[in-house]
Amino acid sequence: MAPFCTPAATAAPHATPIPLTSSRKHIAMCLSPKLGGGSQRARLVSSAAPQVRALSPAPAAEEAAGHHSPSPATVNVEYLAAEFAGHGVGFEPVGGSSCAVKMALSNGSVAHLLLPSGLVTSYKPAMWHGTVTEVLHTNVAEGPGGRPVVRGGVSVDLRCAAAAAGGGWSPNGAWSLRDVRGSPNTSIEIELAAAAGNAAVAARCVVTLHPEALSTEVAVTNTAPTSSAAAAMAVSCGMSNHLRVSTPDATYALGLQGSDYRSVDPALSEFSIIPPDYGAAARQPAAGAARRRWASRGFDMILSGGGAGAAEDQPDGEEDDDYKHMTDAMCRVYSHAPREFTIIDRGRRNSVCLHRRGFEELYVFSPGSQYQWYGKYAYVVVGPAMLEPVLLGPGETWQGAQYLRNPNL
Questions:
Q1: 278: phi > 0 → left, psi -120 to 50 → alpha, else beta; which?
Q2: Which Gene3D superfamilies match (predicted)?
Q3: Contact by Cβ (8 Å): 53, 84
Q4: 241-283 tens-digit pLDDT
Q5: Nearest CA-CA partner of 335 in 353, 313, 355
Q6: pTM greater than 0.85 (yes/no)
Q7: Opening angle at CA 257, ends 253 and 258, nearest 5
């Protein structure tokens, strides 16, 4: 297999950014198998920095070891409610420093998003039997200063760094509400924005509740002047979906057969849920130097300017099961995986389809089945990922998206 390489960005002729719209027609187009193939790593377009309003972004903080969360920005819930509430959207203070944005459609589907973290804590799609079912898994723990910290759900881990110099920026935990669009009869869009105070980078994130899906779309722009010769930026992004299941022993991943995989250590962020004894439970054959190599290929790889040699880029194996049982503790990154695959939970008699766009790799994690059914660790994690960063020149934009589709409507 050819080694992974970092693609060089080329400017596109567009004068304005492609809007991150998520109409039902748009999502149907994105889920079309005609658009699922190809090896293009990213869509790059020219774009201006977004105009942030409603909440000033806090300075970005580096992720600290041990899941320590950065101090949250102050959210003016009264202002947000007066400016954006209505038409299926409501606002509610949470924990004194956060705000829950609640979306509800007329078909019964609901979703909740936290500000300023941008974490989606609940997604309850309408089901064929007339009720709604929660498909996301979350835990609430005590964080620094005694404030509650929510983990799990749907999170975006976005990191940017100058390609020729040290230092980096991440909007994680510092998203601002930019706009609310749509109606409960069609779809509801929540647009978030963030901009670095000391770096030429701006990001947008649109979370859209559809009658049949929940989408998360991200765009990152290198806002450096086009005349700057050494202003290339490396962008790395991943999305984690903690899916609620009865137990991993009753959970299967459909559609991964033939995909290359690498065994890795679990992705760590302030929103990750990792059992304390996971390391002992995993005992995967790929443990050791190979796992440590891939586990370290996150932000450190971007700051160092690239990955290892071709010999180290070889996969650990090829998935030979199209009905992958997730009963054992496992953590893998799949390459050459289909753009859409399905998680089936036979215990809850539920399934969720994940479609990705703009990402070449797929992250799959199971804590194992030794824990209590329907308990704290009754979940699996899936999401689009990158093994190599995307390079953006001045004025260029990378876009990526995922769609959690409910096939049970």
A1: alpha
A2: 2.70.98.10
A3: no
A4: 999 999 999 999 999 999 999 998 888 888 999 998 876 555 5
A5: 313
A6: no
A7: 150
